[in-house]
């Protein structure tokens, strides 16, 4: 049986949950991957497990990393405050090399599974200015993936799919609602508490709330 498989990066947030639903709707058997990388809270990992169950992924894998050993981000270094007001340039919530590392591990799992497609929920419209969310990055990683792997060299290449790339946050919400995503079980906040309740002030919370408002969808986010 020639199954269509996909590895999907699943953070537990709104965007990545929508990507799982999109891949499932396209007929993929979904394998989701999350990372315990030293982030501020574990609530997003618990959310990822809930999303994986709700959307019926075949296998959900959590990989342990130590990006807080590198630091350099408000998400991995407790000495750097998460900003609660819009800022200029690349914000301090940018985690150095995060998407590069995450995609590399997803690539390894995809090769083992015989999956040709890797999905990531990056977005170039309503996003925080991270350089590893741009289309140029996705395209460059795909080229590298097909140069650096046995499958790529043998002509069974990989495709990095970023279906949210050109969508607004409101369009992402609308797509997810159509596909049955329960956004109440997702966590997007950069500084959620242990129960997954959002601060309502950080950049991610502001973008999320604006997306629901513009989409005309009631915001199910639990705020503290």
From TrEMBL:
<dbReference type="InterPro" id="IPR018317">
    <property type="entry name" value="QueC"/>
</dbReference>
<feature type="binding site">
    <location>
        <position position="189"/>
    </location>
    <ligand>
        <name>Zn(2+)</name>
    </ligand>
</feature>
<keyword id="KW-0479">Metal-binding</keyword>
<keyword id="KW-0671">Queuosine biosynthesis</keyword>
<feature type="binding site">
    <location>
        <position position="205"/>
    </location>
    <ligand>
        <name>Zn(2+)</name>
    </ligand>
</feature>
<keyword id="KW-0067">ATP-binding</keyword>
<dbReference type="GO" id="GO:0005524">
    <property type="term" value="F:ATP binding"/>
</dbReference>
<comment type="function">
    <text>Catalyzes the ATP-dependent conversion of 7-carboxy-7-deazaguanine (CDG) to 7-cyano-7-deazaguanine (preQ(0)).</text>
</comment>
<keyword id="KW-0436">Ligase</keyword>
<comment type="similarity">
    <text>Belongs to the QueC family.</text>
</comment>
<protein>
    <recommendedName>
        <fullName>7-cyano-7-deazaguanine synthase</fullName>
        <ecNumber>6.3.4.20</ecNumber>
    </recommendedName>
</protein>
<feature type="binding site">
    <location>
        <position position="202"/>
    </location>
    <ligand>
        <name>Zn(2+)</name>
    </ligand>
</feature>
<dbReference type="GO" id="GO:0008616">
    <property type="term" value="P:tRNA queuosine(34) biosynthetic process"/>
</dbReference>
<dbReference type="GO" id="GO:0008270">
    <property type="term" value="F:zinc ion binding"/>
</dbReference>
<feature type="binding site">
    <location>
        <begin position="10"/>
        <end position="20"/>
    </location>
    <ligand>
        <name>ATP</name>
    </ligand>
</feature>
<dbReference type="Pfam" id="PF06508">
    <property type="entry name" value="QueC"/>
</dbReference>
<dbReference type="InterPro" id="IPR014729">
    <property type="entry name" value="Rossmann-like_a/b/a_fold"/>
</dbReference>
<keyword id="KW-0547">Nucleotide-binding</keyword>
<feature type="binding site">
    <location>
        <position position="199"/>
    </location>
    <ligand>
        <name>Zn(2+)</name>
    </ligand>
</feature>
<keyword id="KW-0862">Zinc</keyword>
<comment type="pathway">
    <text>Purine metabolism; 7-cyano-7-deazaguanine biosynthesis.</text>
</comment>
<dbReference type="GO" id="GO:0016879">
    <property type="term" value="F:ligase activity, forming carbon-nitrogen bonds"/>
</dbReference>
């Amino acid at each position: 049986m020639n199954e269509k498989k996909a590895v999907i990066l699943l953070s537990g947030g709104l965007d990545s949950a929508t990507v799982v639903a999109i891949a499932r709707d396209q007929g993929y058997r979904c394998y989701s991957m999350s990372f315990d990388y030293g982030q501020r809270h574990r609530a997003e990992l618990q959310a990822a497990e809930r999303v994986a169950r709700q959307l019926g992924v075949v296998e959900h894998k959590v990989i342990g990393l130590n990006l807080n050993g590198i630091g350099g981000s408000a998400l991995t270094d407790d000495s750097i405050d998460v900003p609660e007001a819009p800022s200029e340039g690349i914000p301090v919530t940018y985690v150095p090399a995060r998407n590069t590392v995450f995609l590399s591990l997803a690539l390894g799992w995809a090769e083992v599974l015989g999956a040709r497609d890797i999905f990531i929920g990056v977005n170039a419209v309503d996003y925080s200015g991270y350089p590893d969310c741009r289309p140029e990055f996705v395209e460059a990683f795909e080229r590298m993936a097909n140069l650096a792997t046995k499958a790529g060299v043998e002509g069974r290449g990989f495709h990095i799919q970023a279906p949210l790339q050109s969508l607004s946050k409101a369009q992402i919400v609308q797509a997810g609602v159509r596909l049955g995503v329960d956004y109440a079980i997702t966590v997007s906040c950069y500084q959620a508490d242990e129960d997954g309740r959002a601060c309502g002030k950080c950049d991610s919370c502001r973008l999320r709330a604006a997306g629901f408002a513009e989409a005309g969808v009631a915001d199910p986010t639990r705020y503290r």
